[in-house]
Amino acid sequence: MSKPVIAIDMGGTMIKIGIVKEDIILSSTAIIADSGNGLRQRLPHIEQAVKDLLAQQGFSCKDIAGLGIASPGIIDSTRKKILSIDKKFGDAPDIDLEEWCRQTFDLSFCIENDARAALLGEWKYGRAKDLDNVVLMSLGTGVGSAAIVEGQLLRGKHFTAGILGGHFVINYKGEVCNCGNKGCVETEASTWKVSSMPNNIHHEQPFSDYKTVFRLAEEGDSNALAIRDQSLDVWAACAINLIHAYDPEILILTGGIMASGSYIIPHIKNQTDKHAWTPWGKVSIEAAAFPSSSALYGMNYLVNSQNK
């Protein structure tokens, strides 16, 4: 039997921390990310949260297989470094997290992109179990993605393979994205962009999140309806691009915006059924089995794989 793993999911709003064994989260907690002020200032808080969870379970670090971090950004999983990260945790590339882990917990360490980690969690324990060709799209602060092709997680020569679905260009005349490109999926529809979308900036009370957009759209607010419908079409276009790029059996949807999944899944399914070039049949479009914890499961799998 494998030992439990300390798994950490660095979200832009909250940092989730869990002790995971196989497909069970033994205990978990979450702390405020305060990501605009960097990662270094959160490390003592992460350390304390981990120690509290260990104490709850009656564990010491000797009972743990290792520690794994799921992080936004471009992650060198070989050298165990954050290479590039957009806005959130801006100081992270300058931190030696493996050394921090060794000094703080004396544990083996691994790190992976958060969308890849979430996909691994769904692939090993959730919605995509026993499938060999899977794509995940995460709708949240930004738009993330990850792909497994022929049973292999895509990373690529420079660790960007599969994860830049949010930076597919769908409007080449569009606005400049945080990444420097024009008309990315994220610039057309994502939480960080919603407050400055054309139908929002002239609204009496601009919407700050998609929960509000979907609620007011249902109530008939014309500006909210316009933003919702544009966003649904943008995410469907991203889904079609992901299907064309990676030829999956299933596309898994996750992320905070999927609280409105009852609208999103039927629309994306309808659009992909109509417009994706899949002469063999239709790609299954499904919500994640573990929408808030799949990255924790994924890091558990990676730590145990590393230790074999």
UniProtKB/TrEMBL annotation:
> What are this entry's molecular-function GO terms?
kinase activity
Q: Which InterPro entries does the protein's record reference?
A: ATPase_NBD, ROK
Q: Which UniProt keywords apply?
A: Kinase, Transferase
Protein origin, superkingdom = Bacteria
Keyword match Lipid biosynthesis? no
- What protein name is recorded for this chain? Glucokinase
What organism is listed for this UniProt entry? Chryseobacterium oleae
